[in-house]
Amino acid sequence: MASIFTGLNTQNVAAMTTTQIPNLTTADIVEISSEQIAVLTTTQIQALGTGDLIALTTDQISQLSTDQIASLSTTQLAALTTTQVAQGLTTDDIVALSTAQVSALTSAQIRSLTTSDVAVLSTDQIAALSAQAITALTTAEMAALNTADIAALTTTQVLALTTAQISSLGTDNVVALSTAQVAALTSAQIRSLTTSDVAVLSTDQIAALSTQAITALTTADMA
Description:
Blueprint: H1 10-14, H2 26-29, H3 34-39, H4 42-47, H5 50-55, H6 58-62, H7 66-70, H8 74-79, H9 82-88, H10 91-96, H11 99-104, H12 107-111, H13 115-119, H14 123-128, H15 131-134, H16 139-144, H17 147-152, H18 155-160, H19 163-167, H20 171-176, H21 179-184, H22 187-191, H23 195-199, H24 203-208, H25 211-215, H26 219-222
């Protein structure tokens, strides 16, 4: 059976209602052309079911405009496959994501992003990542975060960081940690800091360490 889009011109597609859009089948969706995708309104995009969205090829996802991507609900965005995220979203699309959309990204979706993709995330977007998603950042991606990004992390995010991620921060980012962030560090996280990292901690940061974290400091750290 032919897709409904085979017989529609762009004017017909643009005229489809939000009642008609949810009734499309995945067989219809996979046949939508780039010209037809271009005329879909943000309201029409929002009317697509998650099953329809994940049926789109990476080429079709890449043809969505930044406004169309930005219009996706958090449920729709979270439903995208890692392949769609990795190969379909551009850096401009990622920049356009709202903090609510970023907070909906799964760990698997974050892992599918390249270091270049992560590098364009704003400080507000970084702060919006869930604790589960933040742990999906590679050590290279963590090292690429600037001091403003690090300072914006919530204590919940800091607590979720793996020891490998903590080790990759670098001294500038360690200096940028607030006393509240330092107070959230676990003994294991403190042990993952290098002697150089510990050496740049301010007196206020040292004072903020928990009793358990203090005991994790080595004699070299204390020297």
